[in-house]
Amino acid sequence: MEIEKNTFFNLMHYEYGEAFFGSHKGMRYRLAREPLENVKFVPEDKRGPATLMATVWPEPYSFGKTDKELMTSENFEVSEDGFESAVKWINEQYVSRRAEWEK
């Protein structure tokens, strides 16, 4: 794997409604709970449905300044298994689209 799981915030951090952003050799990525809202102090039975959304896009621009058509996203379960799957997916995107990131 190119990007290791310990690069990201731990799973509990995403309950605070904050995303993690990173970049790797021409590819930018974001991991966040969707919807992006602070639910840390909301009882689990009172929270609405949510996913972990992983997004990748080419450099050089930030998430907010990049055309959404250049972004690819995938949703995962909010769990340790979903977290691991999201990191694996981000790595797969890097490997399978390497030429795109190297432009």
Structure description:
The chain is α+β, with helices and mostly antiparallel strands. It has a four-stranded antiparallel β-sheet with strand order 1-2-3-4, covered by helices on one side. The mean pLDDT is 96. It is built from two helices and four strands, in the order ββββαα. The protein has one domain (8-42, 49-101).
Largest sheet: 4 strands, antiparallel
Number of strands: 4
Total count of helical runs of at least 4 residues: 2
Give the DSSP E fraction (strand runs of 2 or more residues): 25-35%
Helix content: 10-25%
User: Topology as H/E string?
Assistant: EEEEHH
* Biggest sheet strand line-up: 1-2-3-4
| Whole-number tally of structural domains | 1
Q: Rough shape?
A: globular
Counting helices, strands and paired strands, the structural category is: alpha+beta
For the CA atoms, what is the radius of gyration? 14 Å
Mean pLDDT: 96
* Quaternary structure state of the chains depicted: single chain
Low-confidence stretches: none
Distance from N terminus to C terminus (CA atoms, Å) equals 21 Å
